[in-house]
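Dear support,

I submitted the protein below through the web form. The confirmation email said the job was done, but the results page showed an empty box. After a refresh the structure appeared. I'm attaching both so you can tell me whether what I see now is the final result or a partial one.
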Amino acid sequence: MVKNLPQKNIAYTAITTLAFVMACMFNATAQSLHAAIWYFDGLLYDFSSTPMSLSKIGNDNWNEVIWYIDADGHHALTVADKVLYDSNMEPIPTDYGWHRGFFVPVPNNENLVYYIEIGRCHLIDINKRSVTDMEYVIDVDAITHISVHNSQCNKVWIIDNTADTVWHEYLLSADRIEKIRDIHLDQENFKYPLDKSGWKLGLSVDCKHYTLTNFKLNNNTEVYYGDFDRQNGNFNRKASYDFGNGYIGILWSAIAYDNSRIYYTLLTTDRQYQILEVPIVGGLPMYDQGVVVLSKTFTYPITNTMYHAIDGKIYCNEIGNCCISSISIDDDGKTIYNVLVSSSESMISNSTINQFVSTWFMDDPCNPCADMKPPKIISE
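What the results page shows now:
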């Protein structure tokens, strides 16, 4: 159904320093290809080449598949029609049906991959084509969660934001999944009633900042921004803002690749779908300096998704606008909006879910040399 992609003197100090620098260069972990292939709503996004290519998948059943792409960009696992498949689309034998969930590879051993459903967790050995049903009960919904490596990259944070006033944080490692804390949301810190179906939490590409919206039609127009600590999993809110009476809902948000701005998709009271660009200055969003990048009429209330991609762009599934679009920044710092695919009828649904680990989009997220300043090389 889907094929794999072709897929101690001055001289001594100088020499040893150069060797260390070269080791860092050659051992650097480049940006992974886990997110090189997407299957969204009957379309194949292929980021393995430049520019990316977009094509239609013939089998309509691919609207609801859940996929796993390995670090080399190869299609490795699929869940479809309650069946688990290997890279050749051959069923892997199990004694139960597979429901909506998400894949997370085990840190430091990507031959092992967790598949997490609500109330169930499985560990898949890709090489052995075997599955172990784990004893951990982890109630995380596949749609409303984020996953991100911790600062040492030996564990993965799984953060569930499906509850109205309590979020759950877990740490996933090679041998266990442990619950770390419940994050209790104080209603006094939110202007509008909290609604679990509306939470949209996203991290910046460097995973140092977060953006948060809570969409509820005709009710919630407040947004939030702050810092995220990969070491301890803490969120530190730095700003909140109410867009006010001119809007009936904030659909989604995403922080630009260079952390220079936040993009919001919104619905206005005069029936406009908008993309708003808010600059970040001195570590804080300047909401009063927001600029409308796009404004177009919508015929009925819509939702959409916004996902980072490894080509440096943000891709939007404009559900109800019947199109797929991208947002990028040109060399002059100007935002470019581009429609990639459009249709006379809605071809986009909520069936496909975000499978990405946020750290997959970082450059060298786990390279110990990544933050090293280039030393002076002294030669005789």
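Response: this is the final, complete result; the empty box was a page-load delay. DSSP finds one helix and 27 strands in the chain.
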